[in-house]
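Ticket 4471: requesting a sanity check on a complex prediction with iron/sulfur cluster. Repro inputs:
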Amino acid sequence: MKKLGFGTMRLPLNDPKNVKDIDVAQTEKMFDLFLDSGFEYVDTAYPYHEGESERVVRKALVERYPRHAYKLATKLPTFNLKEPEDCERFFNEQLEKTGAGYFDYYLVHCLTTDLYEVAKKCRAFEFVSRMKEEGKVKEIGFSFHDTPEKLDEILTDHPEVDFVQLQINYLDWEAPNVQSRGCYEVARKHGKEIVVMEPIKGGSLVNVPENVKELLNKMDPSMSIASWAIRFAASLDGVRMVLSGMSDLAQMEDNLSYMKDFRPLTDDEMKTVLHAGDMIRKTIAIPCTACEYCVAGCPQHICIPDYFKLYNERQQTLSHGKSKAYDELAKTHGKASDCIGCGQCESMCPQHLPIIENLKKAAESFE
Ligand code: SF4
Ligand code: SF4
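Returned structure tokens:
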């Protein structure tokens, strides 16, 4: 199978302020191009687009193509589980929402230290294994956001999983809050194949600083900046798939152009790309991927990733004081200073960011 998967967590929108209002017509064209080019792997999940991603996958893919034309992955929403019976309830709801009949890949979603305890309490691994035995799922795995030590523990407890999904990109390879390299090595030690998520780190590895752009362009000016990130992940041994959360046709065309006949990076290219990661890490104040996992449960309705994006942009332009964009957002959301420090968001953040502390910085800067 070609090594690029279509991640459906950032689909094109009709209204950029409403993540549920997906541009279905453009999404259909994206699926057409993806499948016509010989790619197959489609990744969705229960919470993407606040529940709409799985529905749009049904409209734009499942109802328009025969079942053998694609492979579909979705995930058990660990963060919504309260008791063992919930696993079956969510699974049936997902089968109904997608209309897919079965899932090629089914993952326990977003395991961290805390959510692994929830998964244990709700017998999530036993449930996904049962779905595999019953033929409703072809392969099982889990997506993971924690330390290499925790990954080692989970893979020791659950050798039955077929694969793991890890956040791997050249920026996080050596980042202490993500430890991509450490997690990658643990997965390989256990002999597991890897599906890569966030290869472009939520788009951060598209808009890289000028000096990094120059460095990458020097190697091959015909390759897009994003291509270095996708090809870095795809070049690692044991990586079976790289998921890219493509948001429009142009991004898809770019991704397909170099993944159609994929050529792994050379050793020298790998070294240069990792050096680029070191250079970028020095410039990012808050390494937020805009995944939005922190947003839904915030009692103050603070648009956390939007404020972090503005804050990061500000660090690069070295501007100060009032910001029109911030004031506009604050009209319809809580301000950064409205944070009451309840910590709900931090417990959800896959990047383990000190969100409360960072909101204080944003408030100081913008308010
Ligand atoms: S700590 Fe602040 S930002 Fe986080 S959920 Fe609570 S109120 Fe919202
Ligand atoms: S702060 Fe964390 S959870 Fe929230 S959007 Fe950023 S990376 Fe995701």
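Notes from triage: Residues 303 and 329 are 8 Å apart (CA to CA). Leaving this open until the requester confirms.
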